[in-house]
Every structure is written in C-alpha cells, then in structure tokens.
Amino acid sequence: MLVLGSFLMAFLALALLIGYSYGGLFFEHNRLQASANEVALAGARKLNEFDRLGQMNNMIARSRQLVFEGRRQLEEANDKYPGIAALANDLLDEAHESAVLLENQRSLLNVVARSEANIAVQSKFDEVKGSYAMFLPWMKVETPELAGYQCGRCTGVESNVEFMATLSGLASFDKEKGYVVGDLHPYYKSHVNAKLSGPDSDLDFKISSLAATVKNSTPPARIILPGNFHSVASGDLPSVCRVKLWLPVSTGYGPYAGGKMSCVGAAAATGGLPQQ
Predict the structure, then answer these.
(1) Per-residue pLDDT tens digits for 59-84
(2) For residue 14, what are the contacts with CB-CB under 8 A and spacing of at least 6?
(3) Which residues does the UniProt record annotate as the domain Putative Flp pilus-assembly TadG-like N-terminal (predicted)?
(4) Which of 111, 212, 226, 256 shows a CA-CA span of 20 to 30 A to 5?
(5) Contact in structure between 118 and 230 (CB atoms under 8 Å)
C-alpha cells in the first residue's frame, strides 16, 4: 500500500509538472504579446513627436492653396490688371518655390521620423528582452528576438487636415478629383499626390494618414490590431509601427513542445493637433 501511495504521489507530481510546462507556454505567449505591443507603441510615439506629421500635413495643404490662388490671381491680373501682373507672377513664383522646399522638408522628415522610431523600437526591445531568459526543470525560455519591424498606416484612417472650402474653385476641383472623404466632417484623403492641374501639375502635394482631432479630443498613441496595418511607399510619411517578436521556448517534461513562439504588435501614432 505504501509503495502504491508513493507511486500515485510521484505520478501526480509529474502530471503537475507537465501541466506547469504547457501552462507556462500560454503565460509566456501572453507576456510576449504584451511586449510586442509595448515595443510597437514606443516606435509609434516617436513618429508624430511634437505633432510634426500633423503640422507637415497642414502646411502642405496650405501651400497648395497658395499655389492655386497665386495662379488664379496671375490669370486675373493678365486679363484685367496688367500693371500688377509682374507682382502677381513674383508671388506665384514664391509659392512655387515654397512648395518645392516643403516637399524636400517632407522627404527629410520621413527619413528622420522613421529613423527615430527605429531607434525607439530597438531601445524598448533591449529594455524588455533581458527579463525573459528562464531555465526551469519543466520549461526553458530563452532571450526573445526582434524578428521584424515595419512602418505604415492604419487602414481606414485618412489625414488630419480638414477640408478647406474657402477657395471655391479649389474646393470644386478637389471634390471632382476625389481628394476629399467624408460628408459630415470632410477631410483630405491620405497617401495620394493631390496635384493641381495645368502649369502647376509639376508640384507634389503628399498628405499622409494621421488620426484627426475630433471635438477637441486628440487620439493618443494607441495599440491597434495588426490586421489594420497597411504598408506605405518608402517615400510616404508613416503613422503606424508594427513589430514581430520571436521567443525560443520548450517544455521540460512530457511530450516535447518547443520552437519559436511568434507575436506581432502594432500601434498608431498620436493624432494631429488642431490647426491654430
């Protein structure tokens, strides 16, 4: 009887250890997912730091207005007021130069924002990875790996720039070209090159995706579903970070279960602040 009791106790202890092994895998998966979200959020916060993406979007939209109105004023001056046509032409040239300069700055911001987000992702990953390694009789957990990192945008999120109907000619043109989305609260569409027509069609006006402030409430940087991540061209400003983490794990007792556990986390940047 004593031998049988000892055998049952040993069997129960082994069963508990096996249960701990598999239960530990589920625990580590949840922990890895939380870390992936945390790392992605660190990168997303950097993308729109100091509202730099939101301000760039608004400046591009207003630069576009200047060029459109400058062209209209030049045509009107040539027809009705030839004495000030030279001045109107100078103003249009200045608007053109500003648009070109702004596009160059947008390209530079794209490089800087992506680079700083990448540094933030790597820094946060280095911060959390050291707490994972664990070697127990019933489970082995190694150091996680940063398997992938991407910048993009959130599906269904357009720009933070409110539709500007002040210039009726431009407003009609934008609606005709499909540059505006939304009926009740219209905003400019993101990730399209909102070119003007005619002699000004050589200029680029690229407004990026960024959540807008609604009723004085600016969306904070937030976790999103990885499935809502959408890639963007390398030359476009991103507003979402997505990371993939791998974690080598294995059980110690019972049927072997092991390999690289994988989790994907995604986060969106802080929304654009209201235009002052």
Answers:
(1) 999 999 999 999 999 999 999 999 99
(2) 253
(3) 5-45
(4) 256
(5) no
Alpha helices in the chain (DSSP H): 2-47, 52-80, 85-129, 168-177
Domain count for the chain, please give it: 1
Instruction: Report CA Rg, the chain.
Output: 28
Classify residue 274: in a domain, yes or no.
no
Residues 107 and 85: their CA atoms lie apart, in Å, by: 33
C-alpha–C-alpha distance, residues 142 and 34, integer Å: 17
What does the pLDDT average to over 98-116? 97
Dihedral over Cα of 127, 129, 135, 136: its sign:
positive
Q: Which residue has the tokens 């207003």?
A: 62
| Summary mean pLDDT of the chain | 88
Q: Which two tokens stand for residue 100?
A: 């070109």
What range defines the domain where residue 261 resides? 2-268
Amino acid at site 14: L
Task: For residue 232, report the phi and psi dihedrals to the nearest 5 degrees.
Answer: -130, 165
Is 276 within a domain?
no
* Structure-token pair, residue 249: 């794990």
Q: Transcribe 59-109 into DSSP letters.
A: HHHHHHHHHHHHHHHHHHHHHH-GGGHHHHHHHHHHHHHHHHHHHHHHHHH
Those residues with Cβ within 8 angstroms of residue 69's Cβ, 6 or more apart along the chain or in another chain: 167, 170
Q: Give the pLDDT confidence of 116-127 residue by residue, as tens digits.
A: 999 999 999 999
d(CA 136, CA 232): 43
In a domain? residue 273? no
Q: Could you tell me the CA-to-CA distances from 176 to 63, 70, 179 in Å, in that order?
A: 20, 21, 8
* Closest C-alpha among 46, 47, 37, 41 to residue 245: 37
Q: Are strands 139-141 and 134-136 parallel, antiparallel or unpaired?
A: antiparallel
